[in-house]
Amino acid sequence: MRIAVVGAGGVGGYFGARLAAGGDEVTFVARGAHLEAIRAGGLTVRSPLGDLRVAPDAVVPTIADVEAADVVLVAVKLWDTEDVARQLRPLAEGGAAVVSLQNGVRKDDVLRAHLPESSVMGGVCYISAFIEEPGVVRHNGSLQKLVFGEFGARAAEPSLRAGALLDRCAAAGVEAEVSADVERVIWEKFVFLVGLSAATSAVRQPIGVVRGTPGSRALLLDVMREAAAVGRARGVDLDPGLADERLAFCDTLPAGMAASMFTDLRRGNRLELPWLSGAVAELGGELGVPVPRNQAVADILSPYVMGTPAGIDA
């Protein structure tokens, strides 16, 4: 299978390298120091499941350099989605299936606004991975899973392209499954991610502190309940006890775990806040669902969205 991976960071770098090792023709789109390092020495993935190395010629600087693809995996930061979607149109019109592995629930709406609707498949990933240094991706732990599937009426029938991608994941040693209700899967992950990112970033402490303090624990639960309520208002079939179940899951996480948004906040980097609690606040307003906790988080963290302002200590 010809696979283009747009964004060779932790997510794209890891899954793309696994698929390449499984025999697929994988092309990575990268930029900056990461691009130059891969060009010089290839892409290295360090993982408890076995290290990998992808040859330097597997990377290109722009989507236009990808001649053709059967599948495109989108793994860029959410603020780059619209720009990437516009550039992907020739590949999508050429028959490529586009699968976003990004966080958030509006990513596929953005893709469909610029691409043929039939080209977009839903997807989520479960992994802890990051760029350790230019040219090197570090995978933490053993979790590495993809879930993908068709949207709407197309999900009711077997999908040849989803089945083909599932087969390639199996050949690469990537845990994967095809979902008949991928929108629900996306929202289930979103509810948890919004809670983890909002609570750890607003409190500026990892999950152990957040869940162990009554006030911040309540914040975590309320943020997730609001996100789930918005999803239900949009017609997504979310279990009424989803937020409570996700809170119980948070109790099983390593105490030092925090969302990537909290890491970005500490480093002074740009935040995905508008696509997380910000998206819950915006959707809640559109749908008439009260979301005061998410709105408060979005307001509190708003000065840091574009990075830590000069003279401010995050």
Automatic annotation (TrEMBL):
Q: Which GO terms describe its biological process?
A: pantothenate biosynthetic process
Give the keywords, sorted.
NADP, Oxidoreductase, Pantothenate biosynthesis
Q: In which pathway does it act?
A: Cofactor biosynthesis; (R)-pantothenate biosynthesis; (R)-pantoate from 3-methyl-2-oxobutanoate: step 2/2
Ketopantoate reductase C-terminal domain location is: 181-302
Q: Which Gene3D superfamilies match?
A: N-(1-d-carboxylethyl)-l-norvaline Dehydrogenase, domain 2 (1.10.1040.10), NAD(P)-binding Rossmann-like Domain (3.40.50.720)
Database matches in InterPro entries: 6-PGluconate_DH-like_C_sf, 6PGD_dom2, ApbA, KPA_reductase, KPR-Related, KPR_N, NAD(P)-bd_dom_sf
Please indicate if the UniProt record lists NADP as a keyword: yes
- Quote the protein name from its UniProt record: 2-dehydropantoate 2-reductase
- Source organism of this protein record: Actinacidiphila rubida
Write the lineage as a comma-separated list. Answer: Bacteria, Bacillati, Actinomycetota, Actinomycetes, Kitasatosporales
